[in-house]
Amino acid sequence: MKDSEVELIRTCISNNADLLMAKHKYLSIVEGCCHKRECGVAIDSSACKYEPRLALYVLAKGYIPIDEDPFERSYDGIQVEVREGVFVPFVKTSNEYHDHVRMGCAIHRHLKGTLGLFIEHNIYGLCGLTCAHAMLSKEEHERCKQTNGRIYSELLLNDCEVYQPEHPHGLGSLVEAIYKEGNDFQTGIDIALVKIKQRHPIDGKFPGSKDGINSESTGIYVVL
Questions:
Q1: Among 7-16, 29-38, 185-194, 211-220, where is mean pLDDT lowest?
Q2: 168 prior amide bond cis, ω within 30
Q3: What are the backbone dihedrals phi and psi of residue 198, each rounded to the nearest 5 degrees, phi first?
Q4: Residue 119: CA count within 13 A, CB half-sphere
C-alpha cells in the first residue's frame, strides 16, 4: 500500500476499533489489508491492482450472534473484508515454568515425564497422572515388583518431591505408583499419582507448542 493508504487504514482503525470490539463479542482482530481488485494477463504481480480494506477477523464467517447487528460494509470510506481467525495470546511451552500447571507440562523426578489429566482423589486430593517409569528409580521399580506392582510414598527410597519443569521448581510429591508388566493375557499398567501441592491448575488448556499450534481440552479434572 502507498503511504497515504496506510495512513487512511491507521486512522480508520483508530476511530473504529474500540467501538467494534465493544459491539461484536466474537470479533478477534482488526487490521488493514490489501484486497486484489483485478489482475492483468501479465505474470508480473505489478500488473495486479489492489485497494486498502479493513480486515475483521471472527470465529466463523456468515454467522451473526443473537442481539448483534452485522458489520457495516465500510467504515470511514474503507470497505470491510471479513475473515476467519482468532487471536490467541502467547502461552508458555511444556518445558517452561508455569505459574499454574497445565496438562502436558514437563515434570521431573528421576526422569523427565509429562503431566497427564488431573483427578480429584478421595484420599490425596488434587493429583496429576503420569507414567510410573519416569517417577521411580531403578531400585524403586524392583521394590514395586516385590509389592505386587504397587508402591506408596512411605515405601519409596528417595525424596518424593516432583518438580515442574525441573529442580528446584517444586510442584508436588509422588504418592503412589503402579507398575505391572503385561503379557499375552493381561494388559500392563504404568501409572503414577502426583499430589499437586502448589501452582494448582486454573483451566483445562494445554501448554503452547513450538510451532504456535495450541489445543484446548474440555475440562480441568475428573473425580475418582
A1: 211-220
A2: yes
A3: -150, 165
A4: 15
Cell of 211: 510451532
* Distance in Å from the first CA to the final CA of the chain: 59
Task: Write out the chain in H/E/C secondary structure.
Answer: CCHHHHHHHHHHHHHHHHHHHHHCCCEEEEEEEEEEEECCCCCCHHHCEEEEEEEEEECCCCCCCCCCCCCCCEECCEEEEEEECCCCCCCCECCCCCCCCCCCCEEECCCEEECCCEEEECCCEEEEEECHHHHCCHHHHHHHHHCCCEEEHHHCCCCCEEECCCCCCEEEEEEEEEEECCCCCCCCEEEEEEEECCCCCCCCECCECCCCCCCECCCCEEEC
Higher pLDDT, 189 or 47: 189
pLDDT tens by residue, 119-165 = 999 999 999 999 999 999 999 999 998 999 999 999 888 889 999 99
Please name the amino acid found at residue 186: Q
Q: Where do the domains of the chain lie?
A: 3-84, 106-223
Banded pLDDT at 218 (limits 50, 70, 90): very low
pLDDT at 29: 92
